[in-house]
Amino acid sequence: MPIAVERRGRVAQIVFNRPETGNLMNAALFAALRDALRAAAADPAVRVVRLGSTGDAFTRGGDLHEFVQNPLKGGWEQSALYECTLELARFQKPIVASVQGPAIGGGSTLILNCDIVIASDRAGFVFPFSSLGICPEIGSSYLLPLAVGERRARDWMLTSRKIGAEEALAAGLVTEIVPHDMLEARADAVADQIAGYAGEAVRATKKLLQDVHLAALEGAIQAEMRALATLMEGPAVREAVGAFFEKRKPDFSGLA
């Protein structure tokens, strides 16, 4: 299974579980995450979701083998990516995430939908859309400027450069940094602390913080999906994916 789910008291643990691939994200993983979030939302005993991953990487981004087939070809409105993104945007219980290593592409955009993000001192973040011939997703075109500021968001998304843990903390992308061997214990402690509070009050607090932005966020998500569906059929993606598998630098010079 691409995701492992278990209950720990009032906390639902959702763990990306494809360590042999660096937890690459594909349609099956997004569908499993969507279903796990729906189950946690419907379970009155769950007060907090604790999101993590196995292996050395939080996730190394989208599975480029699937890019070749274009998972949005059948219509983005029915895609697992879109449905999972909406679940994240609308999720009414707190999500505490831990990031132990590289969080590339969807890994970096997904954590923007989490309430608290605790990073290892080995963590790193990349928003590689320009370098892959695609555009932002998972609501990041709205959420990243909100989190780190408009100017910095443009820098990170347009240059596709790596952001280290310290820069991510200073910018507001993550909540705190801890030594690598303390990461899981610290994230568990924060999740347990929140789960110990009155669930109704915590949900009401998140809803107040969430509802201010929800309509704009949903509009941004739909605009992202429309743009992504178009770009996935374009020549820039084919060149980027081909270059990756051929271990060369992509050449976009002949493209618009």
UniProtKB/TrEMBL annotation:
* Keyword Secreted on entry: no
Record Pfam families: ECH_1
Its subcellular locations are:
Peroxisome
Which keywords are on file for this protein?
Isomerase, Peroxisome, Plasmid
Q: Please name the GO terms that the record assigns under molecular function.
A: delta(3)-delta(2)-enoyl-CoA isomerase activity
Concerning InterPro entries, the annotation shows: ClpP/crotonase-like_dom_sf, ECH/Chromodomain_protein, Enoyl-CoA_hyd/isom_CS, Enoyl-CoA_hydra/iso
Name the family the entry cites. Belongs to the enoyl-CoA hydratase/isomerase family.
Q: What is this protein called?
A: ENOYL-COA HYDRATASE
| Taxonomic placement | Bacteria, Pseudomonadati, Pseudomonadota, Alphaproteobacteria, Geminicoccales
